[in-house]
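Continuing the series of single-chain predictions for the mutant panel. This is the parent chain; the variants come on the following pages.
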Amino acid sequence: MSSNRHGTSSLSRASTAVRDEILAFSLIFTCLFLSHVALLRLPYFWDEAGYFIPAARDLLLTGSLIPHTTLSNAHPPLVMLWLAFWWKYSAFTPAVTRTAMLLVTAFAVLGVWRLARRVTNEAVAIATVIATAVYPVFFAQSSLAHLDMMTCALTIWGLAMYIERRPVATVIFFALAPLAKETAIVAPMALFAWELLCPLLQNVEFDGGSLCWQRRDWLRTSSLLLCILPLALWLTYHHHKTGYFLGNPEYLRYNLGATLTPLRVALAVLIRLWHLLGYLNLFVLTLLTLYAMSQPALLERDGSERQRIAIPVQCAFLAVIAAYVLALSVLGGAELARYLLPVLPLVVLLCVSTLRRRLRYWTWCVGAICAAFVFALLTPPPYRIAPEDTLLYRDYVILHKQAETEITQRYPHARILTAWPASDELTKPFLGYVKQPANVIRIENFSEVEMERAAQATGEFDVAFLFTTKWQPPHPLWQTLPFGEAIQERFFDYHEDISPDRAASMLGGRIVRYENRNNEWMAIVAIERVENAVNPPAFAGHQSLAFIHGRPAH
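Parent structure:
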């Protein structure tokens, strides 16, 4: 009888826990949906338009895991499968896409809540969830069709299962994460390496406690290696279909071959640390945490010290964070803050826990941190960022939608000179910008060199659509030194767009429309000779000035 009662009690507790998590998920998703309502119908932005949406659409239409309307870069297909599923059973619209991604974000936030409750307490968990959700990069990425939010969700859930000592669930989540993005394999491999190192640190103590788990389970440690298997199978399949394990040669060169220099890696490490500790007002959280660490631990009402995250758990978190920083400093040509989303909640959790442990008015501190995050979300910072890290991307999308609608209506048969991603926006109506594909001639960017090349071929196009390709702050806090510009151009694919007036002068045209939102600008330049008579195109699509000048495109 006692055994039956115990089993019934356990089942009841499990049922209650599931019900609580379903309710929490529903509440989280509702809050996310309401806060993103104004963003749900926006056309697709930048990398969404350039790869992820076309790849998912190919999967929807053909069932092929390898995209054929864009070059495959070997990204695993889990996110594309998720989007294709929702399009198939709902509708192929940006609103469906962004709602589907908000479901993923809600699952990620639920994982943060579960992990934080497990290692701290309810108050810290709630504060961590709120601070994470309103952090600009997390908020902006919540509805965008990128890989990083699903990677974050599966990684955080894998860590939660790891801390709860559920090896089967741990392997499942950590094995699924690399099928969203291949770099997610870093987390389980970091934990595997840390557990191999732990026996050497058993006698090392910190503040009276061990750095590692008290008991080693070699079977559980070895099971982390199983997380490699799904990714290995995908890369093998990709090689079978395309002849490449890690994407096309240009993609591999950009993301690996061009990154393996000591100076570039060292600079990338500094950028990654900035992204985790200072970027978009994260420095407010970091500075308050450093101050808190100088204070003694406070006491609970019963006289005991306030709870800290267990030292072994902190070490496991730090191992994953450090592995991500190092791995993403070696891999990847673009140093984007969103790549660190899988470990950002861990940084927030560690800091909020420290604030609660050592500062009496810690809730006010968390409130100030959240206010700083919201300010950064809505206000352009005085330094360069990727527009997708804040609501700047909304300004970009609105400007492009308005400009490209005007171009196609005012110059319906024009040959349009522009750069990527506008070249895709104008030729692929399913991206949400135009109703019919336009005739586009593509250049690489709007730098001085590229515009000089374009000026030599002014007879090949009728209208130029210029826009921000490298966002600059309206009020920079400091001016970049010349050697800084040279380093960015050499290692981080930086260039400077020339002004619309200068571009119009070089192309022999005049600006017929110009708009600027928070230094996201666009300009429509009509070439004088064809402003009143535009030649009809031979076809709808896009060419490259690289071919016009007799050499292959970059």
